[in-house]
Amino acid sequence: MTDSILVLYGSYRSDRLGIRLANYLVTSLRQRGNDVELIDAKAVGLPMLDRMYKEYPKGSAPSAMEQLAEKIRAADAFVFVTGEYNWGMQPGLKNLTDHYLEEWFWRPAAIASYSGGRLSGAHAAVSWHGTLSEMGMVVISSTLAVANISAALDADGKPTGNGGDALAKAFPRFAEDLAWWTEAAKLQRARKAPPY
Asked: If you average pLDDT over every residue of the chain, what do you get?
């Protein structure tokens, strides 16, 4: 059975290196037989959060917000690709996710972090773990962390050098962990309706 996975990416910078990791994940998850779509916060273009999706009267949310809500509700799992800004989250990705709440519930989420330096976005990944849990997702224990991203992935999202080798070696466990939790959540939702 094919899993529907959204890969969410949130950099608004003009020279975005993290898109390499997002593209690598989309390609690699597709190669495993999943139905995968990249959700690029910059391309979606939601405004800074003023009103959550659920706060709009039915049918009156902006078109981009409504379309994304449908995609989130239809997805079986999520992968959040995050850089680290001053030991924290990228505001673009955080803003995108905060427009929704119930739409995320009862599905697994995975975190893939990156940085231009040696810390691999680890501080942002830690912050995301608690946030995604609070937003009703089960966060898998496996993570991907890519340091010196410009040396680990080329412009086409293909692994290069030692960092790329480490990423390619870590990916199968990450993907298997996500697949296990995705299957478990799908089976449980089919067996019993969520309690709220």
From this structure: 96
